[in-house]
Amino acid sequence: xxxxxxxxxxxxxxxxxLWMILWGVLWVALIGGxxxxxxxxxxxxxxxxxxALRILEERFARGEITAEQFRxxxxxxxxx
Length: 80
Description:
The protein is mostly helical. The chain has 3 helices and no strands. α2 (52-62) packs antiparallel against α3. The termini are far apart.
């Protein structure tokens, strides 16, 4: 009697490829979501919030305001 090697539902009766793709997409989405959330959280820890004084300094650096205007506005922001 001849033996029948690899007989049966070896790869899930033809649907295993679909589940492999779905699990792959799920893992990519989970890892991508985790990385996205991590970048958002760590990005805010670096003090990237734009305070009024920081914006004023940037405007002065770009030459939008004069040194006198900068000093006056900074004095107003600092409450002096």
